[in-house]
Structure formats: structure tokens, C-alpha cells
Predict the structure of Copper-transporting P-type ATPase.
Amino acid sequence: ATPMSIMTATGRGAQAGVLIKNAEALERFEKVDTLIVDKTGTLTMGKPRLVAVLPEPGHDETEVLRLAATLEKGSEHPLAEAIVAGAEERGVALSDATDFEAVTGKGVKGMVDGRPVALGNLKLVTDLGLDAADLTAKADARRDQGETVMFVVLDGEVAGLVSVADPVKETTPAALQALHDLGFRIIMATGDNERTARAVAERLGIDEIRADVLPEDKARIIRELQEQGARVAMAGDGVNDAPALAQADVGIAMGTGADVAIESAGFTLVKGNLDGIVRARRLARATMRNIR
Ligand code: ADP
Ligand code: MG
């Protein structure tokens, strides 16, 4: 591509809220046929709210929330913020955790008031050697609403569930429709549970999902698609998404997301919504047409 046509595209992109890192990103994007989208913070607002605390028999609702929120004070994950904010809104007084540890893609662990507490997904519960099979129906009922369910473990037993809801961004449905119309194969990838992922995907007309993925899996999924001949763009916002953004033919970061995601990406969507991808595709087409 000529420097002039690239400059024009870069300028138009910037006006439309799409920051284009370099000519290669624009050239490669014209050939992309497969779009991987992260769920949390990309399709959804990434601002989850606590919607339910479900104690197990013999446990108290406020106490389950207090333990969960005390532990989550140490985490910067959006789920953690939702739990801490939920506790504050309900006037629950928190204490301080010790031995805090974040388990990437799974949850958090630590000691609260001298007792071992853990909070996270089923993988975390399984890693602790526990069985949460009895809780499946209760958890699934929430997941079917698109909620993310976390298990609270106290003294080596599940003390309850906490559930958060993260609304879909207002702009997401129309942007996805336009991206489908442009002919992209669209795959949603998420560290979240399969059932939650399916509920969200169904509402958005996305028919391919990769759920329960650990952060390192996202880059591997992209590599496998590339090996099958796909040209892949990945849209994501999180610190965890950076390796996948780098692996993709074109990484697309949400401008509202983590700095490291933006650094790893070829495009940045300033407003943090997927409309920018539709614009970027049109720009890439127009630019490449002009120079051929
Ligand atoms: P995503 O791909 O949806 O952005 P992550 O890899 O960040 O997901 O997290 C995957 C899952 O791990 C979450 O859905 C949650 O169940 C669990 N998890 C991660 N961090 C935390 C945390 N701080 N507290 C509770 N659960 C967590
Ligand atoms: Mg995310």
C-alpha cells in the first residue's frame, strides 16, 4: 500500500474511533475471515453487578458475602469489583484477608479471620479436591440467565454461591449483525462457564463458542484456526487477552480495556464497542482497492 493511502485510512479511522497501528494491520485485516471475540468487557459492559448470594444450609448469607468480598478486595478482576461493591451496598463490614493469592482464570484464595477461604469457578473447586455436583442445578438455573456463578469455599467445604450479571453493551447486537452480514465467521471465547457463555451467545445469534478457556488457551485456539487456514482477528479487552491479541493476524483491543491489550493490538477501538470493526473493514477494503 502507498504511504499516502495508508495515511488517509489512518486519518479516517481515527475520526471514526479506530486507531490503526500500522499498514500491515490494515492490509492483513482485509483478508481476515474469522473473528474471535472475548465475552467479558468486549461483548458485555465488563461491569458486572452482584445479583445473588445463595448460602448452603448451615451458612449465613451475609457471612458468605463478607468472606467473599473480604477476599476479593485483593483482586482487580471485574468480578471481584462486583462482589466488593455488592457487599458495600448491602452494608456488610469487611475484614482483611491474609495469604491472598489470585489463581488466573479460576479465582482467588486466602485466609479470612484465620480461616481458609477460596472463591472462583468449578475448576478452582475441583483443584481444591472438592465435589460441587449437588450444586449444579442451582448454579445452572442462574447460568441459563447469562449470569456468572462463583463458589465460595470455607474450611474445605462449599459454603455458598455468589452470582453476578454483566449486561450486554447496547451496541453489541447491531454490530454483530453487521459483522455477520460482512461474512465473518464469529466465535465467542471466554473463561466463563459453557452454560453462561451459551445463554449470552444465543441472545446475540453467535453459534460458535469456546467456553471454560484459560487465558493461555485463547492464543492456542487462534493458532489452531490459523493452522487450518483461517485468517483470524481477535477482539479483547483484558490483560489476559494480550497473548491472543498478539497471536492473531490482527489484534483488536477495546480502548476501554487494559493497556497491555492495547499495546498488543493492531487496532484499538477507542469507544470500546464493536461498531469500530465494521468501519475498519470498510476502510481496509477501500484502501486496498485504491492501491491495486
Ligand atoms: P474472561 O475470559 O471471561 O474475561 P477470566 O479468564 O478473567 O475470564 O476468568 C475466567 C473465570 O475465572 C471467571 O468467569 C470466574 O469464574 C473465575 N475468576 C477469575 N478471576 C476471579 C476472581 N477474582 N474472583 C472470582 N472468580 C474469578
Ligand atoms: Mg475480558
